[in-house]
Design brief:
single chain, about 750 residues, alpha/beta, 5-stranded parallel beta sheet, 4-stranded mixed beta sheet, about 45% helix
Length: about 750
Amino acid sequence: MEKDLTLKKKKIDEEKKLIQAKCISRLKANGLNNEQAKYILENKGHNFEYLMPTKEKRLIVVVGEFGIGKSFAVNKINLSLLLRAERDIDFPIPITLNASQLSADIQNYLETLILDNSKEYWIIVDGMDEVALSLSTNILENMRIAIERWDNLYVILTSRPLIIFNEISEKVFIKGLSEKESQELVNNINTGAQLQNINFYNLPKEIRDVSRRPLFAILLGIYFNRKSNKLPSTKGELLTFFIENALEKIKVREYETKKLLMKLAVESTNNGNIPVKKTEIGDYEDTKNLLNSEIVIEENGYLTFVLPIISQWFAAKALSESMITVDEIISKNSLDYWKYPLVILLSMFNENKFNEILCVIVEKDAGFASILVEESTEKWGGNKDLKLLTSQETVLKIRMSMNYWTKSLGNLANIIAPVDIYGKLLPLGLEKKDGWIETAWYRGNETKPDIVFFDNHKYEPGWGIYRSSNPGDGASWYWRWTLDELKDNLTKQIKNRSLPICTEIIYKELMWCTSLKITNRGSLFNEKIDAKQVRSILDHKYQHAEFIRVDKNLVPKSMYIEYLDELESGGIQLIECPLLGPDIEEPTDNWVWSSYTDERLYSRTLQIYQEVIIGYKEVVETFFPFLKKRLEKYILYPFILKGEFEVPEKFPARSVGPGLKWYLEPLPFDSKEFVIDIKMTKRNKKNNNDNILYELDQIIKKHRPDSSSWLGASHNGQVLDIFGSSPVTNIIYEWLERDLAKINWIQ
């Protein structure tokens, strides 16, 4: 017993020293000296209790932007847990690791750790945003399973904001500094007499806001120390200063060492942001120089940067110097691992270089390019670069970026892009005043030059919608400007369900809705309609109309008459609803589902989802040929739609409608057809999603290995809305909307 306690005490001491060393190393990498780093680490004013799991909520996902102090917070939490383990004989030493250290088989790993159900076990997993999205999803779902398996387990995960954490109940945002705390930290670090106790109101708003993050407050204090009376204007300027400050420490073989740092960053990034075996980087002298830089550390023969941002910066630097090309990255299928280096490249590096790289990405993977642009540029703001551009330069940049986006859209460009019938960009009009611009594309009949500078007559007929704003800061603003215009147009098409008809079921539902509109019947009407009656109403009520308004769509009367003509030529006199209708003539109540037997509802569900899958695939292949590689449900196809159809339940005072729990399980690509495997069940309140998601993640890795870095396993539960006149069309567009939103192609 005494020997065990001695070993435990020794291990705790080693863990505390390691954590303290890592924290101080990270703080020194930020630019602090040893005394300043120790002062911040030992500061008793930090309160991170709100980030700690409780008995009621044993899994916490700590989410915060870069520089907010997530790693520092969990290290402080870990130190407090180690003190508890030191005082309490029965409290196990907490486990702390990086997400990249976890393998796919997390449950087996946990089984080796949790050996006593009477003790509390704590696990901290840092850096969920530094690994592939599939691994992050896998870790989250497995930790959910784990806290159900073991009621003595407490888990903390940390990450930058990711899509998979958008709507989870376990998420807790880490708090930034108050303006007072930020100012105190800056002035504590800034020892220069000239700018000590600087008034924050003199700083640009962006700098005041970003200095709420501890890293940037530290950088600001060091910046004032080093730059004397100069005020920074952007967070990009602070980050550049941060990297330059870190590089100043490299004294030996400086040029060669920087090349080695880029090589280390490239190798780590290509392989999923993991540590790299030191023998793959260089010899003993190379390793020594890297470690002397104080921005690289060694653990068990592997090298890694002390801060992910430094690795990402050097990876971006390697790209900017053509040490690796974006074509090589795409061919290695590691583009998703390069997300943050590419964001840094767009935010901080040479404009010509990032244009060269972004043009390739837009052309080859427009769905990924939209994610980069969304994250690297602000939507609105005071753009200083724009003030330096002439009107000619401004309009050329907008036309250039719009041209590349348009080429990446295929048939969709004819619907949402400013192009003529030959796919050529329309004339672009622009008015520029300092950092404010207004643009519009000419859609009139007159011949105009490609570039028009607006004067007092800019509102003449023919100009389309005017876009007017002060673009967000950053050299890549014009990529965001043109993408936002396309997104606005696509969002309208999706929200209004108004893409041109390319699939039979959408056509049939639209014709049925039009029949209901003409005969003044509601959306729940399911009986047959006399075609002759419809023609009679058309001849009188719609005699002079060119279009028939059906919800948000304008249906050409000529299209509907062609539909009636086709029915007549086939000897059909009655128009039928394209879907199974109700089979109970006299329901006992007024709920819409009460007109259906359970069996009929089940059959209608199967019919609808059969049509949804076919229609979704046809729409994607017709209008999204260059985005489809990033649309989740399309990449999972062919798949098994597995689900449980939950029959309605009746209670004395109310009725609960049908429900559907479902997920998509990918089949091998050589499978020719999809499969619908929906079972009819009674409502099951027990949640057994966790095991399903773990198994599903393994299947995705097996059958979709090239996309598994961003595909995540998901399970859907919903009230089943399969009623109304166009349920198939609605579900197809809902699927499109969710998939497009994930890649920032709709608002």
